[in-house]
Structure formats: structure tokens, C-alpha cells
Amino acid sequence: MTSDPYGGFRPRSPSGLFPSGPPARPTYREPHPVSGAGVALGGAGAAAWLLLFGLLGTSVRTYAWWTIVAGGLAWLVALLLVRHGDRGVGAGIAIVTGGGWSIAAVIVVARWATNGDWPLW
């Protein structure tokens, strides 16, 4: 007769429904996680940037061109930040820049609709 080390009780092998050990794959962390504060700071900075450039415009035409140039520069910075820096700040810059361009587009179209003359040329 052989002695049973488990005292007559045999533990069952786990079914896999409830994990009992470490995961089979390693878990990776994002090097630059997006935070709400970063998005808010990027948005506030982009809003101030677009406001300063928009105030340089003396007419609808110059306001629209200053906004287009400032937005293009802001998007270049956003692309650099998303690639090599804080992704949250880059996302905030991109979101607010898109909104600023939309506002400029609405103003240009409203002027075009009322005067019948395309204001950008």
C-alpha cells in the first residue's frame, strides 16, 4: 500500500476560468500616458496662441490668414509632441487648433455669403 501525500484529497488542475498565476504575456506600459491635465494645458496654450495671432488681423482676410498660419505652426508642434513628448498636450493642441480653424472658416463663409466676394484672395 502506498501512502498518499494529500491524505486522500487530490487537488484538481485549474480550469483557466480563474487565473492563478502570472499572465502568459508581459504587460507593457505606455511611456507617455495621456492625462486630462495635459490635454487641458495643451488646449489652453493653443487657445492663447490662436488668440494672439488672431488679434494681429485687422480684417476678415488677415484674421483668417493669421489663424491658418498659427494653426499650421501649432499642428507641427502637436505632431512633435505626440511623437516625442507628451501626447496629452499634443492632443489638446490639435483639438483646439481644429476648433480655431473651424471658427475662422465660419467667419470667412459668413462674409462670403453676405458680400458675395471671397474674402481670402
TrEMBL record:
Superkingdom: Bacteria
Keywords: Membrane, Transmembrane, Transmembrane helix
Region (Disordered): 1-29
Spans traversing the lipid bilayer: 34-57, 63-82, 89-113
Name assigned to this protein: DUF4190 domain-containing protein
Organism whose genome encodes this protein: Micromonospora thermarum
